[in-house]
Design brief:
By secondary structure, this protein is α/β, with parallel strands linked by helices. The protein is built from 15 helices and 14 strands. α14 links the parallel β13 and β14. The longest helix is centred in the middle third of the chain and has 22 residues. The radius of gyration is 24 Å and the shape is globular.
Length: 470
C-alpha cells in the first residue's frame, strides 16, 4: 500500500485492472483552459515539451513550468504529430489530466526478497496482482516503498537534480551478507544509491520489514545505528513480516511471539529517546502490530511525528483512538440523532473491519454507548477473518469479497453494513477480483442497507447518518 501522510489518499491503489500507459495520453481537458484554447482534446497524446520527450508526469511538470509550453501532440485520428503552443497566466494550470502518471510503463522489481508478499499469493490470483513494481517515481509521487536496486546513475542524478523527495526506501538491513540473503544479488546497489541520495540531502522515509532470526537482534541494532548517522533520514518504520498460508518459507512471525515483539519495542526505545532529545522527533517508529502483538499500550500521538508513514500502518490505531475521543466529545448531537434514528427503525450498524482493528473500533462503539447513555451498543465491529490469504493476515485493507460474503449473515434485515473503502482499489475491485457493485447488490439482496466510507470515526458517523436519512 502507499505511504502518504495522514491527510493523503485513503483508497488502496494496489493492482489496478487498467492497462499500463504507453505515452502521455490525455484523459480530460478543462473547458476554457490554455490546453482547451490550443485545441488539445481527450484521447490525444503529448509526446514532448520543448522537444524533450515525456517519460512521466515529473517531466511534464518540470518541462512545462513556465508561461509558454511548446508541445508535440499526436492526434490518433490523423496519425500525425502536430506542434501546439500553450499560453497561461502566472499561477494558472494548463488544464490537462493524463490517464496515468507514468508514460513509459512501470519499473518492475529485480529482487528476490524472502518475504515478498507476491510470492505468497494463491495460484489463481489475478495477473495484475503479480506485477511487482519497484519504481522510484512512484516512491516520490505516491509514497510507494522502493529498494533502489534498479536505479541507474542517470536516474540518481535526476532524483537529486529535481529534488524528488521524500523518497520512501525499503532498507531492511545494512550488513551486506544479510541484505543479500534477504533481497538478492543486487542488494548492494540499493545501499550505494541510498547513500548518494542521503549525502545529497534528499529526505528519506525508510522501512524495515522485520523477519525473526534474520534481520532482528544485533543486525537490527547495526541498521538503527547506521540510520542514526544521517540527518536526512527523517523516519524509519519497522513492520513485522507478514505471511499467508501459501508461503513456502514462513509459517510464523512476531504475531505469534509476544516476547519477541516486546524485545523489538524495548530495543527501539533508546533510539526514540535520543531522537526526541536531539531532534524533537521520534524518527524511529513501530507499526501498530508490534504493540498489539506485545500486548502493550498504543503510544501517544506525538510519538508519530505527524504520521509521515500513516499508510504503512504506523499510528493508524492511535489516530483512530484520538479521533474517537474527539467525535464523542464534539459530535454528541450527531450521535444522539443517530441513536434516535437507529432505535426508531430498529436497526443495528455492523462496522466491517479486519481482525487487527476490531478492538479500537469496539472502543469507538463503547464510547458512543457511554455518551448516549445506552444500555447496549447500537453499532458493533464485525471482524472478517482472512481465510483467503490465511497465515497472519488480519488487516482491513486486505479483506476480500469471498471472506466478507461468506462470513456475514445470510439475513441482514434491519442491518446497516458499513464497508471499509480501503478494501477496494481505484477501480472499485477487491483483491479477489469482485466488484464493489456486485458486493453491494448481494448485501442488499440479503436485506442490508449498505454504506461505504473511510474508516475514521467521523466518516463512520457521517456514513451512518446518510444511511438513516436516505
Amino acid at each position: 500500500m502507499p505511504t502518504t501522510g495522514k491527510k493523503g489518499s485513503k483508497r488502496a491503489d494496489y493492482a489496478s485492472t487498467r492497462p499500463q500507459a504507453d505515452g502521455a495520453w490525455v484523459a480530460s481537458v478543462e473547458p476554457g483552459s490554455p490546453a482547451d484554447d490550443a485545441g488539445i482534446e481527450e484521447g490525444m497524446r503529448i509526446d514532448a515539451v520543448g522537444g524533450v520527450p515525456l517519460r512521466d508526469i515529473i517531466d511534464w511538470r518540470w518541462e512545462a513550468d513556465g508561461e509558454v509550453a511548446e508541445l508535440d501532440v499526436y492526434v490518433p485520428e490523423d496519425d500525425e504529430v502536430y506542434a501546439a503552443t500553450l499560453y497561461r497566466e502566472p499561477g494558472q494550470d494548463w488544464g490537462i489530466d493524463f490517464t496515468d502518471v507514468l508514460f513509459d510503463g512501470i519499473r518492475t522489481c529485480v529482487n528476490a526478497c524472502q518475504f515478498c508478499f507476491m510470492a505468497m499469493l494463491p495460484d489463481d490470483a489475478r495477473a495484475s496482482l503479480m506485477l511487482r513494481d519497484d519504481d522510484y517515481r512512484l516512491s516520490f509521487l505516491q509514497g510507494n516503498f522502493v529498494t533502489l536496486t534498479n536505479v541507474s546513475d542517470e536516474e540518481v542524478e535526476r532524483i537529486i537534480r529535481c529534488r524528488l523527495e521524500p523518497m520512501n526506501v525499503s532498507l531492511h538491513a545494512i550488513s551486506p551478507e544479510v541484505r543479500r540473503s534477504l533481497i538478492g544479488r543486487r542488494a548492494q546497489r540499493g545501499i550505494d544509491v541510498l547513500e548518494r541520495l542521503l549525502d545529497a540531502g534528499i529526505e528519506v522515509h525508510g522501512q524495515i520489514v522485520l523477519c525473526a532470526g534474520i534481520n532482528d537482534g544485533d543486525e537490527l541494532r547495526r541498521t538503527l545505528d547506521w540510520v542514526e548517522g544521517y540527518d536526512s533520514f527523517t523516519s524509519l518504520a519497522l513492520v513485522p513480516m507478514g505471511y499467508t498460508k501459501y508461503s513456502k518459507r514462513f509459517s510464523a512471525s512476531f504475531s505469534e511471539d509476544e516476547e519477541a515483539s516486546r524485545a523489538v519495542v524495548r530495543m527501539l526505545e533508546p533510539y526514540q529517546r535520543r531522537a526526541r532529545a536531539q531532534r524533537g522527533m521520534t524518527r524511529f517508529q513501530l507499526s501498530d502490530e508490534f504493540y498489539l502483538d506485545a500486548r502493550l499500550p498504543i503510544p501517544p500521538a506525538e510519538t508519530y511525528d505527524g504520521y509521515p508513514q500513516f499508510y504503512d500502518g504506523i499510528g493508524m490505531l492511535r489516530s483512530f483512538l484520538d479521533d474517537s475521543a474527539e467525535v464523542c466529545a464534539v459530535r454528541t448531537a450527531d450521535l444522539m440523532r443517530l441513536t434516535v434514528a437507529l432505535r426508531h427503525r430498529g436497526w443495528e450498524a455492523l462496522l466491517v473491519c479486519g481482525e487487527a482493528a476490531q478492538g479500537v473500533i469496539g472502543e469507538f462503539c463503547d464510547g458512543w454507548t457511554v455518551v448516549c447513555d445506552l444500555e447496549g451498543p447500537l453499532a458493533r465491529p464485525v471482524a472478517i477473518r482472512n481465510d483467503y490469504y490465511g497465515g497472519d493476515v488480519n488487516v482491513t485493507g486486505l479483506i476480500v469479497s469471498c471472506d466478507l460474503l461468506g462470513q456475514l449473515p445470510d439475513d441482514l434485515t434491519d442491518r446497516v453494513v458499513v464497508l471499509p473503502e480501503v478494501m477496494f482499489n481505484f477501480d472499485h475491485v477487491t483483491l479477489d477480483g469482485d466488484s464493489q457493485e456486485h458486493i453491494v447488490s448481494e448485501l442488499e439482496r440479503r436485506g442490508a442497507r449498505v454504506a461505504i466510507c473511510q474508516t475514521t470515526p467521523a466518516d463512520l458517523v457521517d456514513a451512518l447518518l446518510s444511511a438513516v436519512d436516505a
